[in-house]
Amino acid sequence: MPKEQIIASLDVGSSKIRTVIALLEEDKKMPNIIGVGVAPSTGMRKGNIIDVDEAISNISAALEDAERMSGAPIHHVFVGVSGNHVESFDSKGVIAISHAGSEIIEDDINRVLEAAQAVNMPSNRRILRIIPKSFSVDDQKGIKNPIGMIGVRLEVDAHIITGQSTIIKNVEKAVHQAGVDIDDIVPSSLASAEAVLSRRQKELGVVVIDVGCGSTSLSVFEEGATLHTASLPVGAESVTNDVAIGLRTSIDTAEKIKIEYGTVTPDEVNDRETIDLALISKIDNQKVSKKHLAEIIQARYHEIFVMIKDELRSIGRDGMLPAGAILTGAGVKMPGCLDLAREVLGLPVQIGFPTEVEGVVDKIDDPAYATAIGLVVWGSKYEGRSYRMSSVDFGKVFSGAKKWLKNLLP
Prior knowledge:
It is built from 12 helices and 19 strands. By secondary structure, it is α/β, with parallel strands linked by helices. The strands form 5 sheets. Strands 11-6-1-2-3-19 form a 6-stranded mixed sheet, with helices on both faces. Strands 14-13-12-17-18 form a 5-stranded mixed sheet, sandwiched between helices. Strands 7-10-8-9 form a 4-stranded antiparallel sheet. Helix 6 (236-247) runs antiparallel to helix 8. It is globular, with a radius of gyration of 22 Å.
């Protein structure tokens, strides 16, 4: 293994494309961030590519930005994907241990995970991850790693995350045409968690909530394993649309006043305060109530957190996660967001900042970079420092699951 190795990530969002370049050194545990790039994402909407040429241009701009800062060329990236097309479900797999001695080996892990994915699935769906939640050997349940144990029957409870094939292929095409290969495609909800969660939080029980532009994703962890993932069809873009409709302004003006004057606590805003749109827009010239703006924003954020609460209730974890909720994504920087989340979710809540990295920390000390940072952390932990590939294949799904399993161990 080389003493130093470059690893790069590409967070393909609906608002921004973010790239992070990290240096992996043999004698250090944490990736050293040496380059960061960001570009507007005008070719994407809600996780889907709507203009291939624009998407390629956006990706290239973000890559060049990071290369310029780091002085290192990027040839391959870990790509994060999100959006409503990312779905998940639980599945079980059962196999018989028939070889001599009945000792469970890695090949048995592969076989039982393969059995877990033998489910009826639409032809347009593609498996992104098979994550073992727990194993059972004969009548013994709740096993984290069964390798080396003796038994006659091995069972796995697995969490399977899928994406829409055509959407993922379009992302792959855009990335390849931007001049880089793909190491792996990782659901953004899992990547964000890698950047902001500690092992203890995963053991106690925690939910990571990523409020992006086009969608909101969440991942629930308990006893060190992924318990549940979901993607909700609302995000920061929904807030902007609400503001534009409610205040009768253009989308661009709505985005500007949301960022500059927005808050989710209308009770703290003076009834008489107004915003003169003529000062910030060439199109809109009316005056709007700052309190009304806050009420519109609060209504949408309240809906987002109620949807998350319903998702937690569906798996029996509503108010039952000791490590609480960790918020990531650009959308959680809205003033008052934390307090509203605590009120609705009934959990301790905090903003998630990347913790597993060093280097130019001032550039990425931002919840909006959680996915991009998480992708390089993911690559350094689970994919192996010498692993490279030009496209995602199904065999990699099993390989990733085994490495995930190994990292669950103390």
